What does this fold into?
Amino acid sequence: MEMHRSGLVEQFRQKADAVSTIVKPVATMAEALAYAVQVCVRKEACAMLSSGCEYGLSDPAQELCGLKQWEKLMAAPGLAAADIDRLTALCRDAGIGLIRQGLAAHAGGIDVGLTTADFGIADTGTLVLHCSDEDLRLATMISEVHVAVLRAEDIYPNADAAADRLAAFFSTSDYTAFITGPSRTADIERVLTLGVHGPLDLHVLILDGSTAS
Amino acid sequence: MQTAENNRQYRKQLKEALDNAFQRKALDNFAVAYRGIRVSNFEGIDRARLIERIGKAKDAAMARVDALYHQFREKAEAAGATVHLAASDAAANEIIARIAAENSCTRIVKSKSMTAEETLLNHFLENRGYEVIETDLGEWIIQLRREGPSHMVMPAIHLSRNEVSRLFTEVTGKPQDTDIEKLVKVARRELRERFVTADMGISGANFAIAETGTLGIVSNEGNVGLVTTMPRVHVALVGIDKLTATVADALTVLTGLPRNATGQAITSYVTWITGANPSGASATGRKNMHIVFLDNGRSALAGDPVFSQALRCVRCGACANVCPIYRLVGGHAYGHIYIGAIGLILTYFFHGRDKDKHLIENCLNCQACKEVCVAGIDLPRLIREVQKVVVHSAEQPFLPGLMAAYVLKRRRVFHALLRSGRYVQQPVTGNTSYARHLPDLLFKDHKFKELPALAKKPFRDQWQPAAYRPARPRYKVALFSGCLQDFVYPEQLLAGTEMLKGSRVRLDFIQAQGCCGLPLYMLGEHGAAADLARWNMANIDPGEYDFVLTLCASCASHMKENYPFLLEKQAGTRVNARQYADKVIDYSSFMLLVGESAAAGKNARGQKAAYHAPCHLCRGLGVSAAPRELLEIAGYAYVPHDEEETCCGLGGSYSFKFPEVSAAILDKKLGAVAETGAEILVTDCPGCVMQLRGGALKQGRPIKVLHMAEALQQSK
It folds into this structure.
């Protein structure tokens, strides 16, 4: 079973890597939270991660950029209470704002969105997020960087193997997202460009408790 | 969007497309890149089985589309959505406008939907005073330019970064760079503001899962998530052909769709929406969720034994990606709204005969689309079927088709005409073997290749059976000559039969055989083509022979694939047609069967030979290794090239209907062959020989074009 799990983790890592997802193993949730905060701290150092506010924009679009808070902002809807306390402390120390709801008011830009995936699909490197909650959904859509935690034991070999689980999600009103890599387009001259409407970067932290000890 | 009123206008539009240098280069690069993607994109997947599974799932869904619709509606409404059914494009647009009015919406953001293109929804809503903004980057670009898409997946593939930069400069009122990354970021910021202020989102859907009432939508940019989340109202416009029974069926299609479309194992996002979800922008706290199903002729299609498979289409765009005509002229000239091979078919059913009547003729029948289709749609067959209907419902009967049907069905008349032709052709041939002096009035567009003259003596008059009567024959074979080899290139048949002398093959040539009927099938004259099929089967009894051998890949493919189809409805001949089809074999495969010694040669001495795979051989008959092996056995050094399996551009009567396109395809082919440095170019079809040899001669290229039989004979 352990061999099987490590095989799926490795396949997930390879497939996700092939579509520009940054995959990191973490042993504990605390490590994952610290990683997400570090991503946020380091974020502006990378010029490629600019999301367009510095270019020539029409007035209404520029105005929305202006609404973006100057302090760095992290969104972490749907996190467990204990994790939130820890994250709040980490963000405070790093001078990062943290929100858990009302994300729609920050459409101008959230630096990092932190979420927990329901499960993963190994053969395509896909995250599956059951996100009927609007804030959770928005965290995966409007954040410039999306950091998702995925438990190693929650990786299915392929989508077919997860069909029943999906059907259970769909049994009431529901919004479920398959996320595979950052947002991308090739609509201009077929040149692949990352970060159109959604995140410019996707980090997947594979939480494998069995490696902790 | 192709809107020509007559053939002349349509050819003018095609010529303009051919002269669009940027588009030509962009599409050509894409065609080559896509070929590479295809090799790797189904890695680890049994593609044939996947195609079969997708086809079966879609067929089963369409067979009970009504029941699936009701099941979907019940489930989706239980989850808080409102489901509508629109009989026509106009009805769908009205429903959507009504939803907008009832909810006081004015600003609409939209994600990509071919179905909304089909109903011309944007124009309709804009005329009603709504602001509609496309948010898929490519769609936004073409919307700003007031154009339709030129590809179903990459709608702005025909535009350069410079054009986009100029467009964005206009839109933002600020000077823009031509750096693509920067342009994409500008679009991100400009459109983000639209999402924030919009009160209604319109999407399409790739799946509508009946068992749960769930919509599934694929996207790469992330705009679908925003369109379906930020505004308080969401309307999804969905063709009823997107209904699938189960989550598992949707996942099966999802395995094939992105792989075939863009070579991705999966798109960046797949969004699954069931019912009305929480919405902060909505006063009720729940999304105002509407799903509008569009019929627009689909129910009628679903019930048709031949055409229902058109509804298997998953809109991946691959049939355009591999089409040699699309590669040259792009989607604006090769589609009304739906583009590529499937567009030729759907245009007729969704937008009417008038929009399709010129498009439907623009097909080489090269079968590349059929091979690539991830749903296993027999696209060339459906194109021919639509063409048949279009031809027979025209106000004026199509005279060349009727004349051809009259003549070809009367073998003696046809052959007498061909025989007398060789006397009257003298003024145009000047006693050469080419028709060099054709009058400009009729032929000025056809002079991109030298056309061959009729032979002095047809093969049938030169046939000497005595040499083909071995005492203990291993195979009893009927030779089917085909008209082009019989009357224009008898030397190919003479070479081919010569190679069998001394072998244990008994060869019969039955004088009563007629044209195979392919030209009539291609002209939409299916009745006359069926008559010819019956005639040939009556004269060549498959029960008496081990093989029906033909040196023409086109005749072979037509007899093998289309005879059973054309005679399917006639119980008496149905079995006979299948038996006949089973016996048909091409020359290369047959020579390998007879044995290496029959084909071995020494005179070639390693001469470099390129090969052109006739469409009807490599895709029609599925024969690909045999001819390459044969060349090596005959002592040639076979040199491969990238365009080996690309059509030569002849397509039978196609090259006469669309000479400019045919010439451009031929150019491309000969250029690719020249790069190999080969001295000879070998192929297995007299039609391809005619096109390639005539083109090489006209262009003064040093390469010699030979039929396989001639190549073998020369080395013997």
User: Anything to note?
Assistant: Residues 45-49 of chain A have pLDDT under 50 and may be disordered.
